[in-house]
Amino acid sequence: MKQRVSSLDLKILVSELEQSLKGYRLQNVYNLTSNNRSFLLKFSIPDSKFNVVLESGFKVYMTDFQRPTQPEPSNFTTKLRKHLKTKRLTNIKQVGDDRIAVLEFSDGFYYLVLEFFSAGNIILLDSDLKILSLFRFVDTSGNVQKCQYDVGGTYTMFDKSLFEEDSVTFHNASFNQEMILNWISRSKQADKEKKKIFSIEKLCFNHASYLSSDLIHISLLQNDVKPSTSCLELLENENLLSTTVRSLNETQAKFNTLLETPVGEITGYILSLKNPLFKNDQEPSTENLEYVYHEFHPFEPIHKIKDNVKVDTVKGYNKTVDKFFTTLEMSKVSLSRQNQQANIEKRLQFVKDEHAKKLQALDDVQGLNYRKGYLINLYNEQIEQCKEAVQKLIDQKMDWKNIEKLIKVEQTRGNEIAKMIKSLNLLKNEITVSLVDEEHLLETKSDTDEDDSRWSSDDSDSDSDSDSEIKTEAKKSVKATKMHVNTIDVIIDITQSAFANSSRYFDIKKSAKQKQEKTAKSAVLAIKSSEQKILQDLKKIEKEAKQNVEFKQLRPKYWFEKFFWFISSEGYLCIAGRDDSQIDSIYYRFFDNETDFLVSNDLENALKVFVKNPYKNKDIPPTTFMQAGIFSLSSTKAWENKMVTSPWYVQGKDVSKKDFDGTILPSGLLNVSKEKNYLPPCQMVMGAGLLFVANTETFEKYRDNKEARDKELELVSFDRGAGYSSKIQELKSMLQKLEDQEKSSKDSRKSTESMMEASSENESESDHQLFEDNLATPPSPSQQTQSKIRGKKNKLKRIKEKYGEQDEEERKLRMAVLGTLKQVEQQKSPKESLDSKEINDRMSAAAKKDRKRQQQINQISKLIDELESKTDDVEAADDKDNNVNQYAKQISSIENYHINITGLLSSPNKTDKVTDCIPVFAPWSALNKYAYKVKLQPGNLKKGKTVADITEVFKRHTKELKEEESDWLDSGNLIDLINLQDFMMILTASKFKVGNGNGRDSAKSTSKNSNSNSSKSKSAKGKGKKK
């Protein structure tokens, strides 16, 4: 079974990974539960995610399936998270033809090396190719360089020039006869000590290892060359040598053709072998696998296709590898479960067989003792004669050994009584007699009569037979008759009569019968107990299988699932942003001002619900507005306080992001230009339900019905291009104003900086001049009268002579050395410090405002580019002759959301097939048609407990539907695969009270929802204490 990727596999996989993952950020790294060397790498950008499965030394590929992960990361995973989390994957390359792949993060800031040769390894490098961490520490005592696998050492298997080249290496050189002869000569020299001769296939693969061995094998077979032929025959056979060269060149051509195939277009081949545990009397299923995956190849392996081999083809080699390993892991679990069930059945059968043997043994004891008692009565006289004969010898005080010898002598003389005695046990007064079984004797007699008749008929038919031949045949038949005489050995007590001996055997038979009855009763209980234990083991196995097998296929999510959302009872999509950035995203990307509506309320933290209307000639009914209004209130205090208030709605054309002065409003805020339309007060009753995702066939059926109904009602879809054009014009005008503001701000900032520089220079010059004036100007008369201190005049004169030629910088340096600079600065006017602080605050506020303005400019420019690309892609989607790219398909799915949501079934029919289920949090009135729904009201349960209770209600509802033999139920156990963390994310409120299915209150069913009632009673007690 193929378990690891080859060099060719890795080359193709790396090219597909490079095209898909380049530019994505590593969101997180997890340990998988399958083994301790497997990891899950999650890459993402806005609106796109990829999961990569990595097993050290074995495989790396993108997966479309959800994998079970360990709750706690390992030390190596923690190290990867520390360095690589949120880092952008800038490149991924293969090192030549080696089984080494290198992931470059943040333009060479980090490297993650994946080694798939030998035992494999995962190595984290820094920008200088220094090893930061290793998954597996390698013993460097061999030929491996010590620094290559030591933390802190330099990894030398590649350099940074690797990322400057093309990731795919082509081999254009052709093979020739001289090259192969050189290979043979080198192989002969290397194999002299080993005494081993390579086959032709092994020789070619060892010297052209980048070619797949299977590909070489196929080419050799197609050219009528036996791959296992010794390579030495190439020296003797010229035709064989030329044919081998031709085969190698064809193999290289096939290799280059595979590499030249566009990325994602390679067809993968999966080989499956017949499952020996397959039960032919049952249909193939996940529990009864008919075929088990064995190998995968990027080419058709014609040399391995046999009668018991099945070949599946998958387009895209990464998808091939993903399907192979995912199915293989699931089949391994199924096969293990089958083996466990077989072992359990063997255990049960062993218990049954053991008890059956015991009962049969007791039954045999009864039959044997009955026959013994019966034969004693039958041979009563002979047994009495045996007793008397032995007793007489004992009475004569004959030695016991002599008695045995005498009996043997009498047996040789033909004494019939002596012949019946088989052995003596005189110590216990017992003798063993052999009694002929009467039933067997009758059967033997009848057989003898038949033989006599046959002989007589033979005599009548053939008179030529002699009398001697007849006598010989008669003697042989007599010997055969004697040989087939069946006897039973019976122990006789010589101190008791024959009747007493027979009674003893009948008593033994009776006690054996009683023991058999008791054993049968205990056997029934033991088998029943074993069956119960085995059933428990089977349930445990099934439970473990459900926990272990979580390979749920990751479906492509709808664009509105990243927001708060629900579908109204009339089928209108209502979405709300989780934060301010999402509100802006909805307004610019998904809100149509002409047809859509905004619903909200005047309370704090209210949701802004955007009601999507895909038709320009159909109005939204009031019920949808009411449901959207309830949804907007669920995140406010109205939910906790059970307030009854009125939400409002406005048309989309009255909503904008433009402020009254023409600038853009802050993130999350919208401007309503006209009066709001208030709705009637509504009660806060929400609910949780399940929408089931239809498969392709079912979706197409509902889509066709939807399109036919829209055509019948003459509903016209709104032209999205016109809406995009108006928003582009609005954004461009706002962008122009912001750019003008930015330009004027730059001009004013430059003038302010120049003025501040000039003022600072003037201040420094004036301070220096003031100092010089103080030194040069003599004191005034008043000063002289105030300071007539002895020696003062001479002191000032010396200071002038010493410091008169000092400049300002030298003066500050000298004062700093003396420690007086700080005192002089503190004596400055406080007004100067206040002015400088105010100037700094103003400058920081202006810089902050400039940064915010620049962010708005970048955001608006990005939105304009996106909306312009949307209009281009919508036009491209309408043009049938144009090849629509992936982004255009995404735009098309957004535009046709009202068609796509028809594949979300609230109550599927028995003919519908579903692949997944999506939990929904919506107003209770919007869940009327849902097969699975639970009423939610304000309460005390937190989100985690609420979600757990809801899933339990759904599971109970499935059991009820099964007992009622309903037309449709969740037979695929899709509810068990719901991600509880994702379920919690859709809840807009904080605390709940969970009802039962169909809206019944949990308080009415204490047995089914005891946790809710217990929390309710505790809260009631708490309130009583407060009072």
From TrEMBL:
InterPro entries: NFACT-C, NFACT_RNA-bd, RQC_Subunit_NEMF. Belongs to the NEMF family. Residues 458-467 have a biased composition (Acidic residues). It holds the Pfam family NFACT-R_1. Residues 789-800, 1018-1027 have a biased composition (Basic residues). Residues 444-457, 737-752, 801-810 have a biased composition (Basic and acidic residues). It is found in: Cytoplasm. Residues 562-672 form the NFACT RNA-binding domain. The keyword Transmembrane does not apply. Residues 853-880 form a coiled coil. Residues 444-470, 737-810, 995-1027 are annotated as: Disordered. This is Ribosome quality control complex subunit 2. GO terms for cellular component: cytoplasmic stress granule; cytosolic ribosome; RQC complex. Residues 1004-1017 have a biased composition (Low complexity). GO terms for molecular function: alpha-aminoacyl-tRNA binding; ribosomal large subunit binding; tRNA binding. Keywords: Coiled coil, Cytoplasm. It comes from the Eukaryota. It comes from Pichia membranifaciens NRRL Y-2026. Residues 897-994 form the NFACT protein C-terminal domain. GO terms for biological process: CAT tailing; peptide biosynthetic process.
